[in-house]
């Protein structure tokens, strides 16, 4: 949508060559259109305002009372003027400006447009255009008036405010923006009368209007289109009904209607007014196909040479194409359905419900074939299973106690049918079946969440960005993605969605990537979830993108690796369950909903759909975005830490990284997991990996301190404790690492190992080796932690008695150690002298080299042997200490050393 700066338009003061300037708007002008005309006259002094006759009828009181503020002429007088500039407000389509459209055919006319309707095909060509997505056109013009400092009388301010109040529904419509509020506040400061606005906005309903409203209500019928209820009302009148759109809006409020199309035959024309409070019904798009226009929430059209019945039939055809299906069983269901074979025992069925955390399970197949069968036989609930076990009937087949009188729905069944069958038949889960195949189930929880999120009266709609969505269509974040993600990432995501559509998969980006999108944190580690075969999808994507794939069939995961090293993680939507506490998960194919349910915390359960047509749709089943706003880390269920105790470490890491707070219940569950010592069942490698990730944080001390609060440091070893000296050491390490980063040395090193050495500083060598072996640390790390670190401590004790005075002595002291050990030494050093020596080593001495080699020694006359290393070390020491400067100096020193050694060798022979 075009958006120009609020600058002075060409010809704003006068029309080109002093020709006439005409301001007009659409037929059946509302308050916003009239107010915009008045505002435009402030920007175009001397311009003539032209109002269509139908607009005068509709707003006769406003026009009569404010006429003295306009320089107004009837349309018939414009033909005699030499019009050089046409200014259109609140309209951008020729079909909506009535008789004034003839001016568009003039070749020597300049056209300026100010509008807040969405830009679309067939819009009038303009030489100057200000078209923005705000609640009212007069908001745009008020902003220009404010910037220019143009004067406004209280009467003018009142008239302009009326346009804003009407088109924003007194600031309750979802189209209302911050700019509308600012404009209204400015007009209030200029003396706008709220009492006048209130009187005009809420005028009494006269008997004629009561009659029209009565006809509308009694003629209304509800059409369920793609699961969405839409009211259609039709009336007939032998004369034009003023304020028809206003009465439709009145009916919306009176009857609590989410979407309505009111059809009226008036003056041999059919008028259609559409109003919507839900994003699934875009009335602007629907009526644009019928020659009208407007916004997604408010639109109108006038149609000639058609009967109301014909208009209604065409309207319904359009709506079947355009209405976004949301409240259908196929969209609401959880899929795939968890089933139990009819021949399974009650005890086995109970284990299935416990494993998948469900309260009812579908029973399929023939009892004679207990582990097979797709046909639906019945439903059995946890309550029935519990009673069967109580009565010692655990070995009995579920087919003996299942409910067989069950209701089912098709995937295209609407919300009302789902609601009736679940509530009227007291059925816990509702199977979704098509052609005998079970596609999924709609649970009572699914229904309850949908009913809670259905919009109601009060001005709030599911499109409101401040509401917490539970299903993808409730909010689209594609604009947020384009604002915060790189072009490459957006391109990759769009291509993923397109390929998924072609292959028949559902594609989503999920987890930390989406979480960080809302936290304004850069994160290009994409976690793609595919409803279908994730590995097959990854291979297809890689083949079309010149990338390669590394897959893990057991877990249904794959990594797409691009030639430049960029990676995308792909996984089949899956459900995990744990056979015992702290076990590795067992994986089953699943849906996006169940895939998100297996995740650790609600803040990581957000997903964004990538398929074209739904690109950017936010999935939030577990109020993850709400917890992000509240800055809360919360588990999805109470056994989360029993199933996977490593989640405790992640909870602490996320809390400290994002400045969040672990929820009260979650904190209690952590304390329980520590008390029950579930960590002893974990493999050492898993604990070590989680500890490593904590130590890789920018500043891990707060997380380590939090671990100490929960008694988790003892998981590492009983001797590890957060003392004052350890806190001081961590702060020193952080300071040293920050200093080292500022040197911009192109060397990779493992920062976390420096913190780990600090964490185990008070442990002896035996304890360190026990820790390394318990947590399956690689041999190189065991050497670093258990040998190099203790040698470094010995060197520190030596240096406490005095640091070498020469550069060569300093280099010999530190050169044998890895970077991580030297940084630890700097953090542990107790004197500035030692720290200065380490700083000197890193900044000046470490990479000093010599230009000579063994061949130069051989050339000087010394046969190859171990003495070569000694001579080269002497040359390097001389270079470090400044005794040699050039290659020539180095050669001279070699020759001197060779002569000395040869003499020494000769004496030895004698």
Task: Kindly summarize this structure in a few lines.
InterPro entries: CBS_dom, CBS_dom_sf, DDH_dom, DHH_sf, DHHA1_dom, NT_sf, PolA_pol_head_dom, PolyA_RNA-bd. The chain is α/β, with parallel strands linked by helices and 910 residues long. Helix content is 45%, strand content 15%.
Q: What's the topology here?
A:
Blueprint lengths: L19 E5 L6 H13 L4 E3 L2 H6 L1 H7 L5 E2 L9 E7 L20 E6 L12 E4 L5 H12 L5 H14 L10 H12 L4 H8 L5 H13 L1 E5 L2 E10 L6 H12 L3 E8 L2 E8 L6 H6 L4 E2 L3 E6 L4 H15 L6 H4 L6 E3 L4 H11 L3 E5 L11 E6 H9 L24 H10 L4 E6 L2 E7 H10 L24 H7 L2 H17 L2 E5 L1 H7 L7 E6 L2 H12 L2 E5 L4 E5 L5 E6 L1 E4 L8 E4 L2 H6 L9 E3 L8 E2 L4 H7 L1 E2 L6 H4 L3 H12 L2 E2 L1 H13 L7 H12 L5 H9 L3 H4 L7 H18 L9 H9 L5 H10 L4 H22 L6 H8 L4 H10 L3 H14 L8 H6 L7 H14 L6 H23 L1
Parallel strand pairs: 1-2, 1-4, 2-3, 4-5, 5-6, 8-9, 13-14, 19-22, 27-28
Antiparallel strand pairs: 7-8, 9-10, 10-12, 11-12, 14-15, 16-17, 18-19, 18-25, 20-21, 21-22, 23-24, 25-26
Helix pairs in contact: 1-4, 1-5, 4-5, 4-6, 5-6, 5-7, 8-9, 13-14, 24-26, 24-27, 26-30, 29-30, 29-34, 30-34, 31-32, 32-34, 33-35, 34-35, 37-38
